[in-house]
């Protein structure tokens, strides 16, 4: 089965200086691939390079077999949705408004929702169990509810791939489990490809199909959770000093 997202010998870093070398990732549809590693190991740097927030220093990122640099922003937005760690604080927007903004790749410049778009918004809210608080101000709901709204907004784009950076960061354990079980269900139902980073190893073991271990200045190991989460290997991974 072909990978929907591929990185080929990707070098990632800042200001033209690579801190990670030769990153080769494969993410297939219907699968969750999770980056783990010590704090500061570069998990977010890899994700930011994949989503073009940082320019690649070497190598390439292929989305559905095509080099990302040769695709238009609107084409990419129809295929790839992004949920990064930075907290979003939209003024005066209801949760439904935030989810609706996920339709922007399809609505043209004026952002006017057609009946079909509104239906997709409602469906995305339903799939993330968010209908109950859809009309509340986004700023007034809990962190767990916000993450469900942001996941609904990502689904609203009808992407083939979702990239998430530490999606459970600000959540208590109940909301962490809730969010990841919704994500896992969506992957199966919609045949999505998911690439994310997690610092909670127990959650990564529970939710991932493939685990990618980042350490030093490269990918140290890739495999299914049962291969990665052995006491000896995890102790070795966590003891590796960060690259920067």
Features:
244 residues, alpha/beta, six-stranded mixed beta sheet, five-stranded antiparallel beta sheet
Describe the structure.
37% of the residues lie in helices and 24% in strands. The protein has ten helices and eleven strands. The chain has helices spanning 43-50, 73-79, 95-100, 104-107, 115-127, 143-156, 173-190, 201-207, 225-228, 231-239; strands spanning 5-14, 17-23, 26-27, 31-36, 58-63, 66-67, 80-83, 161-165, 193-197, 210-215, 218-223. Helix 5 (115-127) crosses helix 6 and helix 6 (143-156) packs parallel to helix 7. The N and C termini lie far apart (36 Å).
Choose one word for the global shape: globular
Order of helices and strands: EEEEHEEHEHHHHEHEHEEHH
Helix content: 25-40%
Note the gap between the termini.
36 Å
Count, helices: 10
Kindly state the number of beta strands: 11
Q: What is the radius of gyration? A: 18 Å
Question: pLDDT under 50 segments (min length 5)?
Answer: none
Mean pLDDT across residues: 92
What is the structure about, briefly put?
With 244 residues, the chain is an alpha/beta fold. It has 10 helices and 11 strands.
Question: Which helices and strands occur, and which strands form pairs?
Answer:
Elements: E1 5-14, E2 17-23, E3 26-27, E4 31-36, H1 43-50, E5 58-63, E6 66-67, H2 73-79, E7 80-83, H3 95-100, H4 104-107, H5 115-127, H6 143-156, E8 161-165, H7 173-190, E9 193-197, H8 201-207, E10 210-215, E11 218-223, H9 225-228, H10 231-239
Parallel strand pairs: 4-9, 4-10, 7-8, 8-9
Antiparallel strand pairs: 1-2, 1-3, 1-5, 5-6, 10-11
Helix pairs in contact: 5-6, 6-7
